[in-house]
Specification:
Number of helices of chain B: 16
Largest sheet of chain A: 6 strands, mixed
Number of domains of chain A: 4
CATH topology of the largest domain in chain A: Rossmann fold
Order of helices and strands of chain B: HHEEHHHHHHHEEHHHHHHH
Helix content of chain A: 25-40%
Structural class of chain A: alpha/beta
Shape of chain B: globular
Number of helices of chain A: 18
CATH class of the largest domain in chain A: Alpha Beta
Strand content of chain B: under 5%
Strand content of chain A: 15-25%
Helix content of chain B: over 70%
Number of strands of chain B: 4
Strand order of the largest sheet of chain A: 6-7-8-3-9-10
Oligomer: heterodimer
Distance between the termini of chain A: 43 Å
CATH architecture of the largest domain in chain A: 3-Layer(aba) Sandwich
Largest sheet of chain B: 2 strands, antiparallel
Largest interface: A-B, 26 and 27 residues
CATH superfamily of the largest domain in chain A: P-loop containing nucleotide triphosphate hydrolases
Radius of gyration of chain B: 21 Å
Number of strands of chain A: 19
Strand order of the largest sheet of chain B: 1-2
Radius of gyration of chain A: 26 Å
C-alpha cells in the first residue's frame, strides 16, 4: 500500500459503526473461472468486499467457496478473471510476502507447527536476528508478547503451539496474519469446532477488530451466525455467483432458497412406507452421549428408512459411527435388532446384524489394491469356508452375485477396486454392507463423489433393501440422499433438534440443518 | 558441557514441583527446554556408578578414551539428527562412512600390497573423501526429493549398493599404507586431546547454535513439524531438505575419515552396523522419528550415555560377548523410560 492511498483512506474511522465505508474495495474478483480437469469449480464467479465490512460467503458443498478462497489467497491462479486488492492488481503467485501483506486466511486445517512455541510460530522464517546474525530469542519472545497484547490474545508466547485449543490457535493465527500487515482476513468455517461460549468470544473479537479497520470474509454453514455477525452476504451455487445483498435486507427464506436454487417446489413422489411396526426395531438408541453429541435417542423400525441430517459438525456422522462401533459412546445404549453389542466394537455390531457404508470410502471403505471379490467379502469370512480356510471359489461365486446384484461395471471379480470409477467403488462398499443380509443398514454420506446414475442406482438399492424388512439409517447432508426417508431427524450442534416427516420442502430441511428458524 | 551440567542440576526437583505447569522459574524456562536436559541426570548417575565399579572410570585417560571411541559415531548421530528433525531418515550413512575414505584410499594407495591404484598423490585423499560423501548425498536427495521416492527404501537400497561398491573396489580386503593426510585427523593431538574429539565437540557446538539460533536451523523444525505450514511461511522446503541430506552424507564421509585415520586402514566393512546405534542414540536423546522434535544437545547426551554405559560394563568385567545383548537391552529400557516420562505414544 502506498502512502498516497493510506492518506485517502484514513485507517479506522468508524463512521456509521465502522461498517461499509466508501473507497476502493479491499478485494474485488471478477469473472473468475477455475477448472480442475472436467470439473468447473468456478464459473464466472465474482465477489466485491468493501473496507471495514464483514462479508459472508455461503453456499452448499461444492458451490466453489474453497476454490474462491484459494484464488483470493494466491494459492491458485484462476484460469480466467482478475483479482484486485484496493484497486491494484494482485501480486504474482510466487510472491508470497506480497500476498501475505494483503490477505490472510485462517483455515479449518491448522497452519501452525505443533512442535514449536507460539512465539516461534508467529515469527516463523522472519526471526529477529541480533549480533552475529543469530536469533535473539528474548527479543522474539518480547515481540511476540507485544503482538499478542496488541491484538489482546491471551496466550503465553512460550507455550507449545500443539498445546493450544482450537480457539486459541485461531486467535494466534489471526494475530500472525495481522502482523504481516494484512487487514483483510478470511475465516474458513471458524466456528465449526468451537462451542457456543468460544463462538461468542470469537464474534466479540471480530467486532473489535472490525472497529480497528480489519475486513473479514466469513465462511460458515451456520446461517444464524451470518445474521449475527455479518454485514453483507454473497451466495454461490453450482460454481456461480447467485446474489450479493446486505444481510439485514435479506430474509432467511430468500437466503436459503438462493442456496438451494429452489423456490418452493414440491418434493419427490411419495414412496410407500415399508415400515413393519410389528417386528423388533432394527435400531433402538437411548440416551446416547459422545464427544460431539449429547442425549440422542431414536428408533429405526424394521423396513423403515430414517434420515439423520445435519451440517458437517452437527454430530450426525459421529452418531452413525457409534451405532456401527467405529466409536465408543460415553453413555447410553445402542440396541441393534434386539441385541446389545459391545460399544465401540465393529465386529460386535456386525454380528448383531448391522451393515454399513463408512463416511469416506477411500479411507475406511475399501483396500484399493485388493480385488473386488476380496473387498466385497472382507467382512464375511465365515461364509467363505470353514476352519479359517477360505475357498476362493466360494468367494468368487459370492462376489459374482454381488457384481450382478449391484450392476458393478467390471470385467470380473478379480479386478482391483482402485481400477474402478468412483460410483462403482461405492457399489463395492455397498455390496459389502449388504453381504450378510443385514437387519440394519447404516449409510454415511453414501453418494459423496458418485456420478448421478450410480447415485440413483445406489439409492434405489437402499429402497429395495428396506422393502425386504431391513431398517436403514442414512446420515447425510445431501438432500437427494434424504428424499426417500420415511422421516428425518435433524441434528444441530450435537443434539437432535427436530423431526421432519415426509413431504418436506428443501428449504425447511436446509433451514433446520443450519439451525435457522424460518418464521423468525 | 560441564558448565551446563552444573548450572542445570536443580532441574529434576523443579520438574517434580511444577509437573503440571508448562513453564518453570517464573515462566523463563519452558518445559520443552527441560526435556532436552532429561539425560543429564542419567549421565551423572552412570558416572557415579562407574566410579563405584572401578576407580579408573573418572580418570581423564579413561574419559578421553570414551570420547575418542564415540567420536566418529557421534558425528553420524549429528548427521542423522538433522535428517530426522526434517522427518526423513538416511540409513546409508554407515556405508557412506566406509565408501568415502575407501574410494580415496583406492585411488591413492600404491599398487601392490592391497587393491590400491596409486593414481593420485596423497594430498587428494581428503577432498576425494568429502566429494564422494557429497555425491552419495546428491543421489539420495535426487531420488527422495526430486523424484519423490520413499526415503526409507531409497537409503536402504543405497546402504546395500554403497557397501557393495566398497567390497568391489577393495576386493573384500582392507586398504593399508594410507597417506599422511588421511591419518592426520585420527592421530593428531590438539592441546593434549585427540583431534577427533575436538572436531566432534566443535561440530556439535556449531550444530547446536545453527539449529537453535539461526533461521535455517529453525526451518528444519518447521519442515519436520508441518511441511505445509513451513511452505506457507515462505520456507523453501525442498532446498532445505537438499542441504540437510547432502550435509549429512558429507559428515558421514568425515566420520569415515576420522575412523580410518585412527585405525590407519579402511576395512571393507568399515561402519557396518553403526546405523542401529545411531538411531538408538538419537531416539534416546529425544529425537522424534516423526520429525520436528528434539535437540542436538539431547542427541549428544544420547550417544554419550550409550558409550559411558558400555565403558562401565567393560570396566566391570562383563564379558565382551555379552555387551551386545546388554546394549540392546539398554536401548529398550531407555525407550520405556522415555515413554513413561514423555507420556505420549511413540510412533
Amino acid at each position: 500500500m502506498s502512502d498516497g492511498e493510506r492518506a485517502v483512506t484514513p485507517a479506522p474511522a468508524p463512521a456509521d459503526d465502522g461498517r461499509a465505508q466508501s473507497g476502493p474495495p479491499v478485494v474485488e474478483a471478477t469473472g473468475i473461472v477455475k477448472r480442475f480437469g472436467q470439473t468447473v469449480a468456478l464459473n464466472g464467479a465474482r465477489i466485491t468486499i468493501r473496507p471495514g465490512e464483514t462479508h459472508a460467503l455461503v453456499g452448499r458443498n461444492g458451490a466453489g467457496k474453497s476454490t474462491l478462497v484459494s484464488v483470493l489467497t494466491g494459492l491458485q491462479a484462476p484460469d480466467e478473471g482478475t483479482v484486485t486488492f484496493g484497486g491494484a492488481a494482485a501480486p504474482r503467485l510466487a510472491d508470497r510476502d506480497a500476498w501475505r501483506s494483503q490477505v490472510a486466511c485462517v483455515y479449518q486445517k491448522s497452519t501452525i507447527i505443533p512442535t514449536l512455541t507460539v512465539a516461534e510460530n508467529l515469527f516463523l522464517n522472519r526471526h529477529q536476528h541480533g549480533r552475529g546474525r543469530l536469533i535473539t530469542w528474548q527479543g522474539m519472545r518480547r515481540r511476540a508478547q507485544e503482538l499478542l497484547t496488541t491484538w489482546s490474545v491471551d496466550v503465553d508466547p512460550q507455550t507449545m503451539a500443539g498445546e493450544l485449543d482450537v480457539e486459541q490457535r485461531q486467535f494466534v493465527e489471526i494475530a500472525r496474519a495481522l502482523s504481516f500487515g494484512a487487514r483483510f482476513i478470511i475465516l474458513d468455517e471458524p466456528t465449526a469446532q468451537l462451542d457456543a461460549a468460544a463462538i461468542s468470544r470469537l464474534f466479540d473479537r471480530i467486532r473489535d477488530l472490525q472497529q480497528q479497520g480489519v475486513t473479514f470474509l466469513f465462511i460458515s454453514h451456520h446461517l444464524q451466525e451470518i445474521y449475527e455477525i455479518c454485514d453483507m452476504v454473497t451466495v454461490f451455487r453450482d460454481a456461480r455467483h447467485i446474489l450479493t445483498a446486505p444481510v439485514a435486507e435479506l430474509p432467511h427464506v430468500d437466503l436459503v432458497s438462493a442456496m438451494t436454487g429452489e423456490a418452493a417446489a414440491d418434493s419427490t413422489e411419495v414412496r410407500a412406507s415399508s415400515l413393519d411396526s410389528a417386528a423388533t426395531a432394527a435400531l433402538d438408541i437411548s440416551g446416547l452421549h459422545g464427544e460431539t453429541y449429547q442425549d440422542v435417542s431414536f428408533k429405526v423400525g424394521a423396513g423403515e428408512i430414517v434420515g439423520l441430517a445435519g451440517a458437517a459438525s452437527s454430530g450426525r456422522t459421529e452418531v452413525a459411527e457409534t451405532v456401527v462401533g467405529l466409536r465408543a459412546a460415553t453413555a447410553g445404549q445402542v440396541r441393534i435388532a434386539g441385541t446389545l453389542p459391545r460399544s465401540g466394537s465393529v465386529p460386535a455390531a456386525l454380528k448383531a446384524g448391522a451393515g454399513f457404508v463408512p463416511q469416506d470410502r477411500h479411507h475406511q471403505g475399501y483396500v484399493p489394491d485388493m480385488s473386488i471379490a476380496d473387498n466385497a467379502t472382507l467382512s464375511v469370512p465365515h461364509r467363505l469356508g470353514s476352519n479359517g480356510f477360505l475357498s476362493n471359489r466360494t468367494r468368487d461365486r459370492l462376489a459374482e452375485g454381488m457384481i450382478e446384484n449391484l450392476a458393478i461395471k467390471t470385467p470380473g471379480p478379480e479386478l482391483p477396486v482402485s481400477a474402478l470409477s468412483g460410483g462403482n467403488q461405492q457399489k463395492v462398499v455397498m455390496a459389502r454392507a449388504l453381504a450378510d443380509d443385514p437387519k440394519l443398514l447404516v449409510l454415511i454420506n453414501p453418494t459423496a463423489g458418485v456420478d448421478v446414475r450410480s447415485k440413483e442406482f445406489l439409492l434405489g438399492k437402499v429402497e429395495e433393501t428396506a422393502d425386504t424388512g431391513t431398517g436403514v439409517l442414512i446420515a447425510s447432508d445431501e438432500l437427494d440422499d434424504l428424499r426417500m426417508c420415511d422421516r428425518i431427524l435433524v441434528m444441530f450442534q450435537g443434539r437432535v433438534t427436530s423431526e421432519i416427516n415426509r413431504g418436506w420442502h428443501d428449504h425447511d430441511l436446509v433451514a433446520a440443518m443450519e439451525g435457522v428458524d424460518l418464521d423468525a | 558441557m560441564p558448565e551446563t551440567v552444573v548450572a542445570e542440576t536443580p532441574v529434576p526437583k523443579a520438574a517434580e514441583a511444577g509437573a503440571k505447569r508448562t513453564a518453570l522459574f517464573g515462566g523463563k524456562v519452558p518445559l520443552a527446554k527441560l526435556r532436552d536436559l532429561a539425560l543429564v541426570p542419567a549421565i551423572v548417575v552412570i558416572a557415579i556408578i562407574g566410579q563405584i565399579v572401578s576407580p579408573i572410570f573418572l580418570q581423564p585417560d579413561n574419559l578421553i578414551n570414551v570420547l575418542q571411541q564415540m567420536a566418529e559415531i557421534a558425528v553420524l548421530v549429528l548427521a542423522q539428527t538433522m535428517i530426522l528433525i526434517v522427518k526423513k531418515m538416511d540409513l546409508s550413512l554407515e556405508s557412506t562412512m566406509g565408501l568415502a575414505p575407501g574410494v580415496a584410499a583406492w585411488l591413492v594407495v600404491p599398487t601392490g600390497a592391497t587393491h590400491g591404484l596409486g593414481l593420485l598423490p596423497g594430498a587428494w585423499a581428503v577432498p576425494i573423501t568429502l566429494v564422494v560423501g557429497a555425491l552419495i548425498g546428491v543421489i539420495n536427495s535426487l531420488l527422495i526429493i526430486r523424484f519423490g521416492l520413499n526415503g526409507f527404501i531409497v537409503t536402504l537400497g543405497m546402504l546395500i549398493v554403497v557397501r557393495g561398491v566398497l567390497t568391489g573396489i577393495s576386493g573384500g580386503q582392507t586398504f593399508f599404507q594410507l597417506p599422511e593426510s588421511m591419518l592426520y585427523l585420527g592421530t593428531a593431538e590438539w592441546f593434549g586431546m585427540p583431534a577427533s574429539i575436538w572436531l566432534t565437540l566443535v561440530l556439535f557446538a556449531v550444530a547446536i547454535v545453527v539449529l537453535g539460533w539461526t533461521s535455517f536451523g529453525r526451518s528444519l523444525y518447521a519442515i519436520g513439524g508441518n511441511v505445509d505450514a513451513a511452505k506457507a511461511a515462505g520456507i523453501r522446503t525442498d532446498r532445505v531438505l537438499w542441504i540437510v541430506l547432502v550435509t549429512g552424507s558429507v559428515l558421514a564421509a568425515l566420520a569415515g575419515l576420522m575412523l580410518s585415520g585412527r585405525l590407519a586402514s579402511v576395512a571393507s566393512a568399515q561402519g557396518n552396523g553403526y546405523i542401529f546405534t545411531v538411531f538408538a542414540a538419537a531416539v534416546i536423546g529425544g529425537i522424534s522419528l516423526n520429525g520436528g522434535k528434539g535437540t542436538m544437545f539431547g542427541a549428544f547426551c544420547g550417544i554419550l550415555l550409550l558409550f559411558m554405559i558400555q565403558n562401565v560394563l567393560t570396566l566391570g568385567g562383563v564379558p565382551a560377548q555379552w555387551i551386545g545383548a546388554l546394549n540392546g537391552l539398554i536401548i529398550l529400557v531407555a525407550l520405556m523410560i522415555s515413554r513413561i516420562t514423555g507420556g505420549k505414544v511413540q510412533e
